[in-house]
Write a structure and sequence with these properties.
Layout lengths: L1 H9 L8 H31 L4 H15 L10 H25 L2 H14 L1
Helix pairs in contact: 2-3, 2-4, 2-5, 3-4, 4-5
Length: 120
């Protein structure tokens, strides 16, 4: 929560024009982005890869999660910003993977992912 608070402060708050827009953004993040990404990368992939070992599961799922963020280039994002996002996604992916593996609950990862996306 400290990291998320610092990100919120560093980004000068959340730019929305109304409470309904704020709730729409939050709802979209929860129901679409965070839920689907966590189910794929921390649910499905971790369960498949855990038989290969703890480290392999965490690093591989985090790497693949980071790699998907390279698609931002197709949206016109600069190479520098995309490389930064890939690096950030890898480390966040590791944190989320460790949360799931250690706590055996994907709900924590979905919540963290949602708040992270929402505040950025």
């Amino acid at each position: 929560m400290v990291v998320l608070t610092l990100l919120l402060i560093g980004n000068d708050g959340i730019s929305v024009s109304s409470v309904s827009e704020l709730l729409l953004v939050l709802g979209t993040q929860i129901l679409v982005v965070a839920f689907i990404e966590e189910m794929v990368f921390r649910g499905f992939m971790i369960n498949i890869l855990i038989s290969k070992g703890f480290k392999v599961a965490v690093i591989t799922s985090s790497f693949l999660f980071a790699l998907t963020h390279s698609l931002q280039l197709l949206g016109g994002q600069s190479i520098e910003d995309t490389l930064l996002q890939i690096t950030y996604a890898f480390f966040i992916g590791m944190v989320l993977s460790l949360l799931v593996v250690n706590n055996q609950s994907i709900i924590i990862a979905i919540t963290f992912h949602d708040l992270n996306n929402f505040l950025l």
